[in-house]
Amino acid sequence: MQRTICITGATSGFGKACAERFAAEGWRLILTGRRVERLQALKEQLRAVPVHAVELDVRDFEAVAAMVRDLPGDFQDIDVLVNNAGLALGLEGAHRSDIRDWQIMIDTNIKGLCYLTRCILPSMVDRNRGHIINMGSIAGSYPYPGGNVYGATKAFVKQFSRNLLTDLNHTRVRVTNIEPGLAESEFSVVRFHGDRDRADAVYKGTEPLTPADIAEIVHWVTSVPPHVNICTVEVMPVCQSCGPLAIHREKQ
């Protein structure tokens, strides 16, 4: 039986890599994103499998609800939802951050993820099968300077995923939170508002994770036996680790 996966933020990075990985296995794809040209190009690239591409801003609940309600018949039974749409904006201290950046991160990383989950989950519960995969971050566990609201949104994703598991304990619906560390995609370009040089400097001298690495992990958690739930996957490149606690010392 051909299975169906819905991937948000599919036009680049982890989302695009997930689309390519699952297409290679013959899955039916529902791909969403805001960049229509990229969506159509990806749909054409993956034309060997059924693809339903939808321009979607996950921050708009009515649009999310309409997308789910209006899915073509063959795409209505979603087996896996990958809540991948998300972003970081800025790296300033909390006292200097742009409040608009905070609002966009909260609306996308928290509200958008909740909207997709709430609209798709009832069908999974009714069918007593399905898998919610949330794209978290190690920033939800380990703070760093300038990570303020971004890290807080990913801490929400961690706890929301745990609470989903408790709500779904009476079902066979699975929930997984993927928590990547340093990964090279368009993430830093977005964070620095298009400053490519500043973004490239983040990865200088490192061998970071790639979108293909994360897509492989996403595929793996869906492929374990149905009675197995991979609750959390924390993954870093070998060049990264948790840093020591910072201590500020007054000059003597």
Quick take:
Helix content is 42%, strand content 15%.
Report on this structure:
A seven-stranded parallel beta sheet has the order 3-2-1-4-5-6-7, with helices on both faces. It contains eight helices and seven strands. Strand 1, helix 1 and strand 2 form a beta-alpha-beta unit. It has 252 residues and is α/β, with parallel strands linked by helices. The model has no long low-confidence stretch (mean pLDDT 96). It has a single domain, classed as NAD(P)-binding Rossmann-like Domain (Rossmann fold). Helix 1 crosses helix 8, helix 3 runs parallel beside helix 4 and helix 4 packs parallel to helix 5.
N-end to C-end Cα span: 71 Å
In percent, how helical is the residue content?
Answer: 40-55%
CATH fold type: Rossmann fold
Instruction: Bin the strand percentage.
Output: 5-15%
According to DSSP, the number of beta strands is: 7
| Element pattern in H and E | EHEHEHEHEHEHHHE
- Could you state the CATH homologous superfamily? NAD(P)-binding Rossmann-like Domain
User: Average pLDDT value?
Assistant: 96
What is the general shape? globular
Q: Give Rg in angstroms.
A: 18 Å
Largest sheet: 7 strands, parallel
Regions with pLDDT < 50 over 5+ consecutive residues? none
What is the CATH architecture assignment?
A: 3-Layer(aba) Sandwich
